[in-house]
Amino acid sequence: MQLDYIFGIHAVTTALQRDAKRCRELLVQKGRQDDKVQKILHLAQKNGLKCTQVQRKQLDELAGDGVHQGVVLGCELVQAKNEQFLQALLDRTEEPAFLLVLDGVTDPHNLGACLRTADAAGVHAVIAPKDKSAPLNATVSKVACGAADAVPYVQVTNLARTLKDLQQRGIWITGTAGEAEVMVYDADLKGPMALVMGAEGKGLRRLTREHCDHLIKIPMAGEVSSLNVSVATGVCLFEAVRQRR
Q: Please, which pLDDT band fits residue 1 given cuts at 50, 70 and 90?
């Protein structure tokens, strides 16, 4: 069984609290006995998870360039959700839907960063097409810092059809495009909405753009013409958060 290694106090704690069923082994650096590690050990014991004390070198190898803070958790890879899961989620969500749609984001680092931002903003789910999208893998989990366990990642067969279904539920589709006339700060981002972000360089696909209710853009004052998709996602999501509060 291939394991996805999650590391760091926050990411490990989140995984144990949110999805302990897929956790398989906990590795803790010898000598770590502080309160944060004790909380993790208690969660592991509560869920019947084996814990092994190891030398720091072994944790360094598993974490690569990341900062493990003395804890590494081996888990089964997170599985993407499907259309049926999304419909059930929307059926039971009592507050106005707040969704993020990624159209053609193939870099796992960008996906991980978008999931992390979506979690921080309180997004209910992140939606992407099955084709030409980054899969959930160990890189995504590491960059997401626990958000891959917290925010559902839904991969759909036909994105245009999914957007149409969302509209029929009364959810407004807001796309982002450099040529849009409305600035993100002037748009109405309150109420049920899905923010659609396109791939770097290419932007939104034609069919996706046609299914948007309106388009917005981020004002750019410098020489660069666009932002990294995860940065742009953060700007737009937190403007929506500001308005919705």
A: low
